[in-house]
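Ops channel
N.P.: pipeline sanity check, posting one input/output pair.
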């Protein structure tokens, strides 16, 4: 950013910046790189900056940073139907991969998320590229046209005016709310006419209270809703006394006062929604706009408000009806610690197929493969989540219809009847089951020793690489590396690489963390060998040398011929009851190796289903005798 600005200033050139880069927000609006981008743009009000929204959609609250910066133009993606062989009259839906807002009033716009690109010869045949990384340059091109027009007409360039011109004159896509598309698809001709008309308007910054984000999001999990209001703080760039704005709501359920007045450039407004809104599960998004006397200038600000009502029941059966072509159906449901669950998606007729996505609480895409195809009958698809991987809170299941075909969809969520915990005793494996249902549970629980696990706490300073060495035994065929950072530390980073090397320095596998939790799968070449996990932290501030911490899990898996099964034990649990089962311990057929403990999968059969809990089993510590 500094180089581009200095280059343009030295040559007296106008400047449009683009950044096709996005990292998952753990705490929306708190990323350090966002504040850096905003400070640069505040100091250079003639610089237009477009940034990709990220590719973590279609779940809500997936907007990546630095696209979440307030002063930048965050660009989501449409899926051009022409790439699917459709005629020119076909509508371009919002792309399934495009990141969405929730706690942020983003994206601002959507542009085509597919483009042709020149590629090296070794990449021939892969000239078609997709992602919001393709969408943001489209928006940068539109902004450059407007900047060029302003320069040629002898008018000063204002990044705020260009952003507003593009947003005010954009056309909404056929499907989706503000959280999916912002104000829609920009029309550069209409934007130029808006600029040429000399419209002027106030610059008002919006903050949702008490969260401090740019939009209000209320998650409702239960019938009792103690508060049915949203509060927003409004602040003008200057301190004009007594400025009055007329308020308009685009949703009948979202009520606003008729006007709001900013005294000395500051004010608050409270919106309300009726309790009847929360009577039916679903996602409700409304936008209240603030208007000045020149209504052709468009709204001076937008108060984006969303109520998410989770599904109730055990099991959950949500009939989403017919999802229009390219549309998204969303279902939120609660998950409980130590309790596995399955989310299954089925279409209503043969020949109909959709993509099913799962998002963890706070928006992170499901930590294993995400985006599974689902169809009718035996072609239904979905996710079964191991108890180890369950994050307590509200999950979101999002179902996307194909861009050119609608689909009738039903989503079912089944939770395990029990919570599952396990630990290693001196001569047994102790499994604790607790019945979470109103019926008796009868099962025959067993465990399988499948490999070995090593855990470590890593403490680093600044961007210095941290290396954790370990020994791969001859029996290991696959490795999984989990890295978890505290959520509050994540806003300091811009990237965090995880790589597994062998002793010759060859990469066995690599992946970046896109959130504070990341998982890397590695297929091992076979044979015993030393190896190491290397952690590569990258910070928004290159000089950041403050300490950081991470929890690391290295899990090694054997093939099916080397696993050890522990004898099953039958158990019957009354409603709400708990039981501890002692499975006689058998040493695994595969020695764990130095620093590792046996890795087990606890299995709880439940009729046609099977619920699991993966768990590392370090030997119990012995208390010292006097």
């Amino acid at each position: 950013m500094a180089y581009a600005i200095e280059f343009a200033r030295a040559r007296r050139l106008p400047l449009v910046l683009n950044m096709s880069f996005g990292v998952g927000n753990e705490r929306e609006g708190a990323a350090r790189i966002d504040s850096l981008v905003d400070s640069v743009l505040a100091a250079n009000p003639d610089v237009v900056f477009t940034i990709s929204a990220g590719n973590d959609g279609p779940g809500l609250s997936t907007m990546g940073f630095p696209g979440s910066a307030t002063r930048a133009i965050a660009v989501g993606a449409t899926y051009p139907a022409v790439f699917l062989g459709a005629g020119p009259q076909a509508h371009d839906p919002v792309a399934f991969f495009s990141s969405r807002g929730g706690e942020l009033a983003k994206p601002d716009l959507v542009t085509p998320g597919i483009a042709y690109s020149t590629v090296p010869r070794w990449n021939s045949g892969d000239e078609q590229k997709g992602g919001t990384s393709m969408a943001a340059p489209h928006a940068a091109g539109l902004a450059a046209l407007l900047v060029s027009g302003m320069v040629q007409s002898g008018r000063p360039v204002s990044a705020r005016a260009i952003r507003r011109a593009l947003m005010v004159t954009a056309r909404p896509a056929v499907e989706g709310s503000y959280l999916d598309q912002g104000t829609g698809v920009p029309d550069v001709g209409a934007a130029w006419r808006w600029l040429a008309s000399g419209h002027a308007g106030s610059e008002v910054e919006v903050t949702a209270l008490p969260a401090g984000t740019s939009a209000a999001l209320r998650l409702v999990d239960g019938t009792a809703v103690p508060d049915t209001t949203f509060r927003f703080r409004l602040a003008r760039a200057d301190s004009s006394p007594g400025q009055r704005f007329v308020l308009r709501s685009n949703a009948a359920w979202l009520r606003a006062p008729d006007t709001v007045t900013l005294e000395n450039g500051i004010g608050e407004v409270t919106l309300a929604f009726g309790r009847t809104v929360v009577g039916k599960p679903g996602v409700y998004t409304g936008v209240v706009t603030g208007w000045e006397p020149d209504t052709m200038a468009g709204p001076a600000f937008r108060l984006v408000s969303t109520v998410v009502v989770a599904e109730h029941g055990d099991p959950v059966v949500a009939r989403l009806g017919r999802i229009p072509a390219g549309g998204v159906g969303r279902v939120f449901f609660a998950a409980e610690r130590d309790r596995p669950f399955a989310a299954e998606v089925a279409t209503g007729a043969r020949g109909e197929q959709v993509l099913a996505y799962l998002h963890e609480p706070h928006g992170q895409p499901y930590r294993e493969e995400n985006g599974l195809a689902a169809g009718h009958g035996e072609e239904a698809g979905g996710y079964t989540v191991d108890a180890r991987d369950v994050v307590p809170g509200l999950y979101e299941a999002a179902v996307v219809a194909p861009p050119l075909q609608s689909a009738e969809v039903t989503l079912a969520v089944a939770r395990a009847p029990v919570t599952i915990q396990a630990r290693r005793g001196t001569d047994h494996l102790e499994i604790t089951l607790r019945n979470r249902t109103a019926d008796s549970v009868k099962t025959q629980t067993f465990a399988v020793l499948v490999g070995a696990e090593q855990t470590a706490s890593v403490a680093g300073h600044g961007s210095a690489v941290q290396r954790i060495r370990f020994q791969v035994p001859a029996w290991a065929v696959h490795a999984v590396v989990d890295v978890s950072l505290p959520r509050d530390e994540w806003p300091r980073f811009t990237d965090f690489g995880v790589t597994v090397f062998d002793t010759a320095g060859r990469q066995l596998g690599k992946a970046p963390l896109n959130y504070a939790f990341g998982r890397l799968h590695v297929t091992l070449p076979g044979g015993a060998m030393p190896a190491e996990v290397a952690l590569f932290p990258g910070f928004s501030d290159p000089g950041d040398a403050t300490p950081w911490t991470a929890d690391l899990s290295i899990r090694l898996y054997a093939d099916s011929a080397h696993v050890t099964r522990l004898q099953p034990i039958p158990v019957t649990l009354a409603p709400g009851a708990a039981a501890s089962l002692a499975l006689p311990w058998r040493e695994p057929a595969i020695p764990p190796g130095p620093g590792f403990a046996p890795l087990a999968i606890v299995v709880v059969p439940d009729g046609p289903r099977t619920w699991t809990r993966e768990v590392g089993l370090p030997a119990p510590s012995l208390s010292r005798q006097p």
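N.P.: looks fine end to end. The chain has a mean pLDDT of 94.
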